[in-house]
Amino acid sequence: MTEKRKTERQSFAPGALTAPLPPVLVTVGDMDEANIITIAWTGILATIPPKTYISVRPTRHSYKMLKERGEFVINLPSASLAKQVDYAGIYTGAKVDKFEKCGFTKVDSKELEAPTIAECPIALECSITDILPMGSHDVFLADIVSVSCREDILEDGRICYDKADLLAYAHGEYFALGEKLGKFGFSTDKQKSAKPEPKREEGKRGDEKKPEGNKRSEKTALEKPAHPNDSPKKKPHRGQANPPMPKAKKRGKRPFGKVEKSSIRRGK
Question: Are 42 and 74 in contact (CB under 8 A)?
């Protein structure tokens, strides 16, 4: 039986410690009577169809409005709205007009009666499909029926999230998003390799590129130096003994030159 590895970690009791989360401003109601509720328990459930959720305590003022209206808007705030986000999560809409206190502007949503907050860079319009009791919170499942954004964060028809400067939340604290580290799939990107050299056909020495700096021709580089006794040898007649070969003199080092690939033994 293997022993457990000791790690320098501390264990805690179970808790809702997922971070970071988006502290969103959820609007519910209509243009005449609307409320804002700050919620961090939210996220994406599916892409096709696009589905999201929010978790709300039944004791919250907006809970009844959500059940009656069956719709809401998730407004994603920028980091500059951190104080307004915090305020909307502390005070109840039963006593305070949060739009007025926070200085927010109501604008019509495209598909819903619930208003969108003009100051928030991105908004998701949501239609409730199910309500699931989960203990301290009830989960409102919803279809995302429309998405809108401010024109100043668009670039070539695409939402630039770095320009949105979205706010983040981590267990009671607010943060601005940091620098961009990459994009989806960047871990598999490969650097462009150098263009491969064309394959050379063996046996065609004239096509091989000569090394720079070597001015000697291939013939001069590969041939042995001339010897005074070297001369064309005639084939002896039948019955005639081969003439004695002249004694070779000691030669110097072989001149530098190219060597055919076929004469090189490849190592393992």
Answer: yes
Secondary structure class of 3 (helix, strand, coil):
coil
E strand map for the chain: 24-29, 34-39, 42-46, 51-56, 71-76, 106-107, 116-117, 122-133, 138-149, 154-155, 158-159, 167-170, 173-176
**CATH number attached to the domain at 24-177:** 2.30.110.10
Residue 241 is predicted with a pLDDT of 52
pTM of the model: 0.69
**Kind of pairing between the strands at 71-76 and 122-133:** antiparallel
CA dist., res. 250 & res. 247, Å (int) = 10
The residue ranges of DSSP E strands in 64-105, in sequence order, are 71-76
What is the rounded CA–CA span in Å between residue 29 and residue 112?
10
φ and ψ of 7, to 5 deg: -125, 150
Q: What is the pLDDT of residue 199?
A: 61
Q: From residue 206, give the alpha-carbon distance in Å to each of 72, 87, 219, 223.
A: 78, 83, 11, 16
